[in-house]
Structures are given as C-alpha cells and as structure tokens.
Amino acid sequence: MPTGRVIALGRLMLAAMFLVATRVDVTQKYPVATYQLLMAYAAVAAVLIVATWRNWWWDATLAGPAHAIDIAVFTALVFLTEGYTSPFFPMFIFVLLAAAIRWGWQETALTAILLTLLFSLAGMAAVNSDPNFPLYRFIIRAGQLVIVSLILIWFGTTRWVSRSISRADALLAEMPPDRSPLESIVRVVVQGTSASRGVILWRADGGRAGLVFDGSSVVAATAARWSDVPAKPFLYDLPKMRGLERDEERNLRVMVPQDVISDEDAATLELTEGLAVPLLAESGEGILFIDRPATLSTDYLELGSQVAAAAETLIQRHALLKAAEESAEGRSRMALARDLHDSVVQFLAGAAFRLEAMRRAEASGGKVEEDLDELKKLMLEEQAELRAFISALRSGSEVEVRDLVADLRALAQRLSKHWAVECEFEAEAVDGTIPTRLHLDAHHLVREAVANAVRHAKAKSVRITLLANRQELRMNFVNDGAPFPLYGERLEPPASLQERVELAGGTIELSRGMEVTKVSIALPIARRNA
After folding, report:
1. Of the four, 251, 454, 469, 524, which is 20 to 30 A from 201 by CA?
2. Cβ–Cβ < 8 Å for 486, 479
3. Digit-coded pLDDT (tens) for 447-503
4. What is the pLDDT of residues 385-436, one digit of tens each?
5. 226 in helix, strand or coil?
6. Residue 240 CB contacts under 8 Å (≥ 6 apart), including other chains
7. Strand 197-204 to strand 284-291: parallel, antiparallel, or no bridges (unpaired)?
8. H or E element at residue 142
9. Residue 462 pairs with which residues in a beta bridge?
C-alpha cells in the first residue's frame, strides 16, 4: 500500500480510537470541546482519504496541511485530555513517524522540536495554573518524547523506501539473454507494476528508437523528440500538465512534464499518467515511461531511481556480453579491465585519498612536501610494477613462488603507505613455480582486499598471510574494520573479489568474529588460460 494511504488510514484509525476511548473512560470527565475536536479530526481524516486515495497529486499537495493539522490536534489534546486514555503519546509517535516516512530526518527533527516545545509550554502553563500539578509526570513524559524523537529521527536518516512496491533489482533479476535489453526492461517493468502501457525512447550514435509494450507485445514506435534526458524520475499527469520530482533533499518539487515530452508526442504514444524514468548509459540515453501503473503514488519516485540504476546496469552488461560474443578478444579485454581496476584504478583511488589528506593538512598549516615526495615515489614504484606485469605477460608462463612472496611483501609495504593503514605480510611457501596469470591474480587480490578494507570497512590494520603448497595458493586477509553487510543470514564477500576468484577456479570464504573480519581465498596452482 502506498505511503500516503498508510498515513491517511492511520490518521482516521487514531481519531476513531481516541474518540471511543474518551467516551468509554468513566474515570475522566472531558470537556465537550474534546469530543468535538476528535469528531472534527475524524471527519477531516475521512475527507483526506477520499481526496487522496487514488490521486498522487492531491496526496503530495495536501501532505503539508495535513501534517499541520496533526500538530494542531496534538497540541489541543495535551490541554484537553489526561490519564491513561490521553492520546497525546500515540499522537506524538504518529506525527513523527509520518514525517520520517514521507520526508526525511530534517523534517522529522523539526517536527520533533516543535512538538516537544509545544508540550513543554503546555506543561509550564499547567504548573502556573495549578500548584498541585504532578510535575514529576510531566518531566517523565517530556523525557519519553525526547527519546522517541531521537529514534524516529534516526529512522528518517535511513532513507526509508516503500516495501509495497517490488524492488527494481527483483523486477530486472531474470532477463532472457537472447532479447534486447530495452525490450526486456519495458516488458518486465510494465508487468511488475501492473501498468497499462510502457514506452522506451532511446537515442544512441545520432539515431533514435522507440519501443511500446501494451501488455501483450512489443512494437516499434515513432521516436519522440526531446532535448535533454531529465535528471531524476518524475510523476506525470499530461492532460492536467502536472508533474512531481524529488530534489537532492528528497523534497517534492513541482515540474511541467511537457518540458520533457510534447503533448503531440504524448498523444502519439498514448501517454496520460504515470512514472517517467531517465536512462543513462555509455551506449546511449533515453526515457522509460510506465503509464497508468497500479496504485500510482509518490512512492514510485523511489522505485524510479531503483529502476534507472538496475536498467542502466542491465544495458551496460548486455553491451559487454555482446562485445565478448562478437569478438574472440572479448575475454582478454575483460580480464585486462579487471586488472586495470585492481591495479591502476585502485592506486589512483588511494592517491586521491592521500591527496585529500594533504589538502586538509595544508589548510590547517601543515607541511606537505614530504608527503608529496613519498607519493611521487609510490607512483614511480607503481609504474615499475606495471611494466613488470607487462614484461611477465610477454615472457615465460611460470613464476617462482619465492618471487611471488617477495613481490607481495613489497606490495604490502607500499599499500601500507598508500592507504595509511598498518599492513602486515607473512608467508609460508614451498619452492616451486606458479602460472604467470596466478601471480597477477594474487597481486590484484591483495590490492583489492586492502582497498576494500580501508575504503568500505574503515579498517586501521590488515594482516595478510600467504600459504602455498604444490596444489593451491591460499591467502588470508584479516582486518579490524566494520563488518560486511548481511545478505539474508550470511555474509557476502565483495563482488570484485568474488568475481576474480571464481574466474581463477578458486574459492572465497568470509567470516566475522572477535571484532575482526577474515577473508580466506584459495586458488588452485595449475596452468590456466588468461
């Protein structure tokens, strides 16, 4: 169920419950104004449900005034009710929760401050008017309000996303490999949202294309004209010239959908009301229109962002797979891309990390000459290692294990300086040789593991252990950083590490205990294709 409906139903249920509770409470005699207020509040809640139930525009437009009414009713109930049937506390939670769900932590914080201030003013007024007023109860309640406020403000910072709509990664998880990615996207999204119609407008390399899916088949459509792809997803109601999008602070902002697509093109494509999603990829750009989906609401703006990210990933993945199928060199190019990512790209990321630290040090009056000299030295060493990699690929296919140990020990020392982290290296190895490809994989895995530990887990130390025998090469990485996120009930290793390990025919295990994370990688020692 959309967020707006949940809040509207909650408002009506609270009003009805408070009205019944105050009527049946024989221990308290409330002023007539209390019942009148609750009946009026229930009537307003019912009107809001009728007005916003199937209208996302009015839901967004009336959200602010409805929130103000909730705050006003809370303030009045603080003055008019008391005892165990007093609805002030549930009302307080409802108002804050509505702000956290609908907007974000800033609006939630402002609402919490205002409600707490109003409650405090009411308490001070009661103390001045009644010398026998139980001050201790007022203090306890005020403390409870502060604690609940902090919890709900934190809830707002988690960027709540509606769970009533299927997530985009679930929608786009299963894609037929033999179908165009644009056709797959429009089919799956329309079916997943129970929309009446889906349209993709796409342009690449100066050409334009259009696809329309009406629930049964995909057909080519006349490509509409547009100047720029919108920066964010937006809701549109073309006949009424209404549009809504979210800004960087997740606040709703009014826009005109005709600025993106003209009425003439919309009529040709039979678009009326729905969600527009921008698609940006290296191979082109476009717009996905999801027309007349079920239960259209402002929650779809979050779905639009997820669909955009998932669709762009799908388009890019399809382009890579197509390139790999069309060319025998595709596999080599992908391997090279991984190597560059795990070596050059990671090194540049670390360099940026160091440069940012230098900039801050210089701003605070520190000297950065020595740090610059050290960074220059590291860059020269990285250049020499890259040349050594190229020479190794051009020369023999075997590398001595002792050379690998020496190289990894030197690499650990450089990474320690490069990432400003304590990086220790130990090795227990036997004499022998390993394939050059395995030598390179070991280098890249060490780089990637250390970079992940520092950048994502904020680790301060990483301990690397290398164990080698005739059958396999095993590397253990232990860091003191934050734990990796859980996927279901198990830890998932970083995708970059897992991909390289799987391509090498090895295994990777992730464990957590005693405030450290351990990544264990085992690679078979055998001749493999690059």
Report:
1. 251
2. no
3. 889 988 988 889 999 999 999 888 889 999 999 998 877 776 777 888 878 888 888
4. 666 666 655 555 678 888 889 889 988 988 888 788 999 999 987 778 888 8
5. coil
6. 57
7. antiparallel
8. helix 135-157
9. 423, 479
Distance CA 168, CA 513 (A): 33
Q: Residue 144 — φ and ψ, nearest 5°?
A: -65, -40
CA 307 – CA 313 distance, rounded (Å):
10
Comparing CA positions, the residue from 369, 366, 103, 349 lying closest to residue 249 is: 103
Q: Which helix (H) or strand (E) holds 512?
A: strand 507-513
Q: How far apart are CA 87 and CA 67, in angstroms?
A: 17
Beta carbons within 10 angstroms of residue 419's beta carbon: 22
Residue 35: partners with Cβ closer than 8 Å, 6 or more residues away: 19, 22, 23
Give the count of beta carbons closer than 10 Å to the beta carbon of residue 109.
Answer: 19
Cβ atoms of 237 and 243 closer than 8 Å: yes
Does the predicted model carry a pTM greater than 0.90?
Answer: no
β-pairing, 516-524 vs 486-487, is unpaired
Distances from the Cα of 320 to the Cα of 179, 208, 314, angstroms: 14, 21, 10
11-23 pLDDT, tens digit per residue, is 888 788 877 877 7
Handedness of CA 387, 390, 395, 397 (dihedral sign): positive
| Burial of 66 (C-beta count, 10 Å sphere; 0-12/13-18/19+) | buried
Closest CA to 106 of 67, 154, 160, 162: 154
CA angle (32, 34, 38) in 5-degree steps: 125
Confidence of residue 335 (pLDDT cuts 50, 70, 90): low
- Name residue 518's amino acid: K
Structure-block tokens of residue 448: 């990637």
Tokens of 55: 């209208």
Mean pLDDT value across residues 326-335: 50
Which residue is listed with tokens 């280098």? 443
Torsion angle, alpha carbons of 400, 405, 408, 410, to 10? -110
Distance CA 179, CA 182 (A): 8
- Stretch 286-294: mean pLDDT: 89
